[in-house]
Amino acid sequence: MILAAEFSRSANARLADFSTSSLERGYFNLREQDRSSLGRLDEAPSELSVQRSRQKRVRGALIAQFAANESQLFADAVELIRPHVDGVDLNCGCPQGWAYKEEIGCWLLRHPDIVADIVRAAKNRVETSFPISIKIRVDNDLKMTEQLIQTAIHAGVSHITVHGRTRHQASTQPVSLSSIAFAVSAANNAVPIVANGDA
Length: 199
Known about the structure:
Layout: E1 2-3, H1 4-9, H2 11-17, E2 27-32, H3 47-51, E3 54-59, E4 63-67, H4 71-81, E5 87-92, H5 97-101, H6 112-125, E6 132-137, H7 142-155, E7 160-163, H8 177-187, E8 193-196
Parallel strand pairs: 1-4, 4-5, 5-6, 6-7, 7-8
Antiparallel strand pairs: 2-3
Protein name: DUS-like FMN-binding domain-containing protein
Pfam families: Dus (PF01207)
Domain DUS-like FMN-binding: 56-198
């Protein structure tokens, strides 16, 4: 997670926080499937869909993740890093105390309008096809999670990664699959939801 305010204001911060080259992006084999024969993620693929699978070589994507609470600073950071990455993610899930005091990370979970402003500002600064995503944790009050997801979707977020723990849960505790399922339902197929939190 890179702090957007420092990244956008300081060349030294940009040099210290981010460097990459095209050689760092690996290539891997992606198995394509006939999507028409696929069921839900928790269902085994049919024999027919496996037979229709084929592989293609694809380049890995590089996504930069920023922490921010000010839309213009986030948009500035996105504009600066845009030529070097395939997408940018807003961290709304860092549970660390220092981040919460700085009003970034998990602090944003209960401030959906700020998240929406940040997403909109970034989408207005770069081409609309450029992915702007958010990573969140679930809130103890799932209605807050639902409001955040729906507000972010309305603002134009490309996808949402859901870490299936609350701000106060340690990573030693298992993720809440039911909370992740709730987030998927709240998105109502408007954007992809990526589950996160356990190996």
